[in-house]
């Protein structure tokens, strides 16, 4: 098997959080908890950008091992040969070590519970949406008045 053929059977996965790079490596298959349901990703997948929900990312490596990464949510970008996960919070554990996997899940859940429910960006977005709604209503009322 040539290096080019082997390369086409894998994809590169990068998982990063605000704290650090969690994982970077080759994979043959990745399962992720997308907002609308679990997605299975293999090499040459259709490009996609979507939100992640809290859950387990399962990485199947080219040497037959499985890596588990627990994420609290974030963004997923899929390109034909590169997958990037920008996680709010993430913790890695080896699937062969149940205690480590349970600890990774616990640490991720703990980090999630400490996140502010509404960050400044969320508040700014809500204020912007309220201002847009108010402006829309004013425009609607103005149009009604000018017709009379």
Structure write-up:
This protein is α+β, with helices and mostly antiparallel strands and 148 residues long. The protein contains 3 helices and 10 strands; from the N terminus they run H-E-E-E-E-E-E-E-E-E-E-H-H. The strands form 2 sheets. Strands 2-1-9-8-5 form a 5-stranded mixed sheet, with no helix packed on it. Strands 4-3-6-7-10 form a 5-stranded antiparallel sheet, covered by helices on one side. A hairpin with a 3-residue loop joins strand 1 and strand 2. It is elongated, with a radius of gyration of 21 Å. The protein starts with a helix and ends with a helix. The N terminus is likely disordered.
Structural domain tally: 2
CATH architecture identity of the largest domain? Sandwich
**CATH superfamily of the largest domain, called what?**
F0F1 ATP synthase delta/epsilon subunit, N-terminal
Structural class: alpha+beta
Poorly predicted regions: 1-5
**What is the CATH T-level topology of the largest domain?**
ATP Synthase, domain 1
Number of helices: 3
